[in-house]
Amino acid sequence: xxxITLVKIAVLLVLITTTxxxxxxxxxxxxxxxxxxxxxxxxxxxxxxxxxxxxAGKNGTLSSILNFATVMVVDDAITEGQDRxxxxxxxxxxxYVNSALDASDLHLLFSIVFTNKKYNGSTIEIQGADRxxxxxxxxxxxxxxxxxxxAQGFAVLETVYLDLANLNxxxxxxxxxxxxxxxxxxxxxxxxxxxxxxxxxxxxxxNGTLSSVLNFATVMVVDDAITEGQDRxxxxxxxxxxxYVNSALDASDLHLLFSIVFTNEKYNGSTIEIQGADRxxxxxxxxxxxxxxxxxxxAKGFAVLETVYLDLTNLNxxxRFNITVHHY
Length: 328
Ligand SMILES: *[C@@H]1O[C@H](CO)[C@@H](O)[C@H](O)[C@H]1NC(C)=O
Ligand SMILES: *[C@@H]1O[C@H](CO)[C@@H](O)[C@H](O)[C@H]1NC(C)=O
Ligand SMILES: *[C@@H]1O[C@H](CO)[C@@H](O)[C@H](O)[C@H]1NC(C)=O
Ligand SMILES: *[C@@H]1O[C@H](CO)[C@@H](O)[C@H](O)[C@H]1NC(C)=O
Ligand SMILES: *[C@@H]1O[C@H](CO)[C@@H](O)[C@H](O)[C@H]1NC(C)=O
Ligand SMILES: *[C@@H]1O[C@H](CO)[C@@H](O)[C@H](O)[C@H]1NC(C)=O
Ligand SMILES: *[C@@H]1O[C@H](CO)[C@@H](O)[C@H](O)[C@H]1NC(C)=O
Description:
Blueprint: H1 2-16, E1 28-30, E2 34-44, E3 52-56, E4 71-79, E5 88-98, E6 106-114, E7 123-130, E8 136-145, E9 152-163, E10 168-178, E11 181-192, E12 200-204, E13 219-227, E14 236-246, E15 254-262, E16 271-278, E17 284-293, E18 300-311, E19 316-327
Antiparallel strand pairs: 1-11, 2-4, 2-10, 3-4, 4-5, 5-6, 6-7, 7-8, 8-9, 9-10, 11-13, 11-19, 12-13, 13-14, 14-15, 15-16, 16-17, 17-18, 18-19
The structure holds 2-acetamido-2-deoxy-beta-D-glucopyranose (NAG) (7 copies).
One 2-acetamido-2-deoxy-beta-D-glucopyranose is lined by residues 264-265, 268-269.
Organism: Cinnamomum micranthum f. kanehirae
Subcellular location: Secreted, Extracellular space, Apoplast
Protein name: Dirigent protein
């Protein structure tokens, strides 16, 4: 029975093994943490190039924004300067609603959709109570996309131009937002059970230290090299230290529980914690990045694993990790 299972696994593994050029590009990418910016929202309800229109309210489309219950749809220009003709860097698209019985509050719900070179296509999401009679008021930056993924922050609003008769206004936005750092990286785990420089050993199981990792209940302790490339001799950037356990009755799953301890210059001493079900018969499988230390404090993310080299007879393997983590 055990040997049938083993053969099945062997066939599967051979089928899924792919050869990948060791010079394959690897990437380590990172996003910025803090963003501060100032821009102006050109909110024009009358005159040429109207960009804010009432669509519903107690008087229907004739409702005034200065009355409770009026809903406006906007596509206001976002400009670098207060002047309407100054450089446009995006649009404010969404709605705002007069949502105070005494008409003193506009509830804002729109995206700032950037069109400038730096943030082109990225957005930040604005939500909050714009008590516009105050000189300064604060609304939330609740999220974002692209460059601003996972953004959290606030915008201080100030009306810098107001023509109340014609309902035209220019609002200054002073934004402070933190975007989580996002790091993406690719590296290889050199898992060698036999030959020179063994880095993975069975320590217990149904046959004691002679147990095979291809059998249920075998516990392995590892100190595998983490390399930049697939080649075992390529630059080492860390070690995978911890354990993994064959934890499926049909032997198809390795439960991983180890740290990636970085030794390269950039992340030296920092770690990320790997945990999860490595259903190694799959071409690609995903395990969790559950935490980290140093550079990767509070990390959360995932790693997509792929077996890029496998010598089943000798139980040697090279696994590629494509990792995406968010951290502070
Ligand atoms: C992992 O990274 C490599 C190298 O950048 C890339 O070729 C491969 O498509 C990636 N795999 C996944 C699942 O993202
Ligand atoms: C209105 O839009 C036109 C075309 O984009 C532009 O030439 C003109 O300067 C705009 N007028 C104002 C007052 O912004
Ligand atoms: C509705 O329109 C009438 C007539 O223009 C106006 O007197 C009234 O104030 C408006 N009420 C609201 C809630 O907009
Ligand atoms: C922004 O992206 C759009 C669509 O991808 C493109 O057409 C436009 O030229 C870009 N603008 C800038 C300033 O990069
Ligand atoms: C084994 O380790 C030694 C000393 O670190 C090294 O010189 C040798 O290249 C390694 N052999 C393999 C196959 O990695
Ligand atoms: C235990 O070892 C024996 C003899 O090598 C082998 O036939 C059997 O498959 C092993 N069982 C396990 C669970 O490792
Ligand atoms: C990493 O840190 C250790 C201990 O602090 C130090 O000995 C080593 O030189 C550092 N390595 C790199 C590549 O910075």
